[in-house]
Design goal:
326 residues; 18% strand; 49% helix; 2 domains; D-Maltodextrin-Binding Protein, domain 2; binds beta-D-glucopyranuronic acid; five-stranded mixed sheet
Length: 326
């Protein structure tokens, strides 16, 4: 009897220990950040992830969104994420390149044939592998999922149809040497500048133009100061959302699994919102008098070959695999 009791006691103790080894994460408010304003697809998808997280954990984990670059530009927000001051960050992959060089494969000009191709790549095994590269790097970020960043084209104060039209034009690019090289190869003069400074830089003539997808061009009102949109489509950069490794490590295994599941759902939800936003933005831009200009795309493609050669040289196999995705 005694023996049985002690066995039962042991079983109870082991049970308790097992339970203790995977305790639920402590209650936490996760600070999320984005340069885009309230209502932008990426922000909405992240807020919806937060609502689901709160419901699934009965309010133990909540998400508070800081949109509109309140917490700074992306370079600074990446640094804040690395130290845990921001828990979840949605950022362009462009700004992640200087921190995790392996992701630059997706940042190369004309690496994706079109957006359908890009989506297939990010949804499939290559997309998954690239998230893993961020996780395996010393960047202290855990990549949760992708978002659609559409196709980036040029906008200037004058129409651009050919590389020669870009001569002497100062074009703002995101802070990554790859993009400066890209603009210089395309015929212009690439200038690295934070997103927040761009509107006034365009207005005052510090730069002559910039490049982005229609939703960003429209929501940032850049079309009011640079109304010629030249459809170069030179960059199709996926966006990403990452969690600070400092915060991730505070989550239980169950909560980490929940985050991964909700991240995949957010990836798919953003896309639906994105397509709607692109259509609305193109419409809004046209109504506002923006001129959409067809360009000699092949000329820009050819001129950027050295950029692909330079940044892609260590990833020849990966690039072949990207090309093979149909
Ligand atoms: C937008 C991206 C945003 C970038 C911005 C930029 O969504 O993450 O910060 O471009 O050009 O399309 O800086």
């Amino acid at each position: 009897m005694k023996f049985r009791n002690s066995l039962a006691g042991l079983a109870l103790a082991v049970g308790a220990l097992t339970m203790m080894s995977t305790p639920a994460s402590a209650a936490m408010e996760l600070k999320a950040a984005d340069v885009h304003p309230e209502g932008y697809p990426n922000v909405v998808a992240m807020q919806n992830l937060g609502k689901k997280l709160e419901a699934a954990t009965a309010g133990r984990l909540t998400l508070k969104m800081f949109p509109g670059a309140i917490l700074g530009d992306e370079k600074s927000m990446i640094e804040q994420t690395q130290v845990g001051a921001i828990a979840i960050l949605r950022t362009s992959l462009g700004t992640v390149g200087p921190v995790v060089p392996e992701v630059n494969v997706f940042n190369m000009p004309f690496v994706f044939r079109d957006e359908t191709h890009m989506r297939k790549v990010i949804d499939g095994e290559i997309g998954y592998e690239l998230l893993g590269k961020i996780n395996a790097s010393p960047a202290k970020m855990v990549a949760l999922g992708w978002m659609d960043g559409g196709t980036r084209s040029l906008y200037l104060k004058k129409p651009v149809k050919t590389p020669a039209d870009l001569k002497g034009q100062k074009v703002r690019m995101m802070g990554n040497p790859l993009f400066i090289d890209t603009m210089n190869a395309m015929g212009g003069n690439g200038i690295a500048m934070g997103f927040g400074e761009l509107y006034s830089a365009l207005q005052t003539g510090v730069v002559d133009g910039a490049e982005n997808n229609p939703p960003t061009y429209f929501t940032q009102n850049h079309h009011t100061v640079a109304k010629y949109y030249s459809l170069t489509g030179h960059l199709i950069i996926p966006e990403i959302f990452v969690m600070s490794k400092v915060v991730w490590d505070k989550l239980s295994a169950d909560d980490q699994a929940l985050m991964k599941k909700l991240a995949r759902e957010a990836q798919m939800e953003q896309r639906v919102l994105w397509d709607k936003k692109v259509a609305e933005s193109v419409d809004g831009l046209k109504k506002a008098g923006v001129e959409f200009i067809e360009v000699d795309k092949v000329a820009f493609y050819d001129l950027t070959a050295p950029v692909r050669a330079k940044y892609g040289k260590d990833y020849a196999d990966l690039i072949k695999r990207i090309e093979a995705v149909n």
